[in-house]
Design brief:
Length: 108
Amino acid sequence: MIKPRAVRQLPECPNCRFYCNNPFLFCEIFPDGAERNPCIYYAPEIGALYNRQIIKQPLQHRTIEEKLALLDSHPLFTGACPKCNYKFASQELLGEEFMCPACGWTDK
């Protein structure tokens, strides 16, 4: 028997990243609702709970279109500079920041 949502929901549930807002699948971790209060897997949308500390996620400042354009042009995905088409060596693709030695393009 499915319990009513009001019985299964904790006050923090709607702000959790595992909350589905689905009457048939209440939570990705606990489909029937949290077993105790506070929920040990509570992870707010702004971050994740790790070792009882909230790890904040970086703010998303790009639109969907900008993110898709990055997939088409960024050296991490293409292996080449979007400005001059310089081919990065595989070792250069392991870094966190990209700077083209040919034209000076950077992804900062």
